[in-house]
């Protein structure tokens, strides 16, 4: 696809970063507000979709390396699995760093969230889902041209 | 003949559906709720997680969530295998 008109690109410049911020907000506050890793990751993966629609494939593929999203996927999956594995003297997925609510109310929050592995797994799953959905969007965009007949030199756009 | 059979079957199935809907418990009064009561009572007290849904998804039923992550990973593998690059470059 060719890049769309300057109106769309300016709108993308204005609003694309808010998607990342909102996705990170939903992921990080997954244990206290509605939302969580899956939902926030999906919101954050909308960023790459908006860039693809507004700027076209050539520019976006020159900006990003798909290996980054691969790394996000593997890191999130491994962190999630290892956090589940670390509670093993008790059971699989035992919440080993949770602090009871009375203690939190008496002493205040620390660096690690008081809900323990819930918040950490939220972050891990959010990173994983953001990477996975970005890879899906990018590879589907790349796969469009496999099923189209005719010459491939000219990228098609519908805006001008 | 076919129409008669269809009408009789529709009446029977409709009566069964009406009977099933009639015997649903009213909203907010589940039949047995010790599990729900335990989750609601202890999600904030033990795990200090204000969002009970997240505490169920990532703590009490974490094994279910690892299955969801596996589903996502499988879908990713299938899509990348389906749309992998052929001879034509970008």
Short description:
The complex is a heterodimer of chains A (160) and B (90). Chain A is mainly α. Chain A is built from six helices and no strands.
The radius of gyration over CA of chain B amounts to 24 Å
The helix tally of chain A amounts to 6
Number of helices of chain B: 4
Calculate the terminal CA-CA distance of chain A, rounded to whole Å. 12 Å
Shape call of chain A = elongated
Largest sheet of chain A: none
**Major β-sheet of chain B, in short?**
none
Number of strands of chain B: 0
Anisotropy-based shape of chain B:
flat
What letter string, H or E per element, gives the SSE order of chain B?
HHHH
Percent in strands of chain A: under 5%
**Which parts of chain B are unreliable, with pLDDT below 50 for 5 consecutive residues or more?**
none
- Cα radius of gyration of chain A in angstroms: 20 Å
Helical amount among residues of chain B, as a percent range? over 70%
Largest interface between protein chains, with number of residues from each side: A-B, 45 and 33 residues
Low-confidence stretches of chain A: none
Number of domains of chain A: 1
GO cellular component, one term (chain A): plasma membrane
InterPro entries (chain A): CPA3_antiporter_subunitB, MnhB
Keywords (chain A): Cell membrane, Membrane, Transmembrane, Transmembrane helix
Protein name (chain A): Na+/H+ antiporter MnhB subunit-related protein domain-containing protein
Write the layout of secondary structure elements.
The complex is a heterodimer of chains A (160) and B (90).
Chain A: H1 6-28, H2 37-55, H3 57-63, H4 66-85, H5 101-107, H6 117-144
Chain B: H1 2-22, H2 34-47, H3 52-60, H4 62-82
Key terms:
heterodimer, A: 160 residues, mainly alpha, 6 helices, 0% strand, B: 90 residues, CPA3_antiporter_subunitB (chain A), membrane (chain A), Na+/H+ antiporter MnhB subunit-related protein domain-containing protein (chain A), transmembrane (chain A)
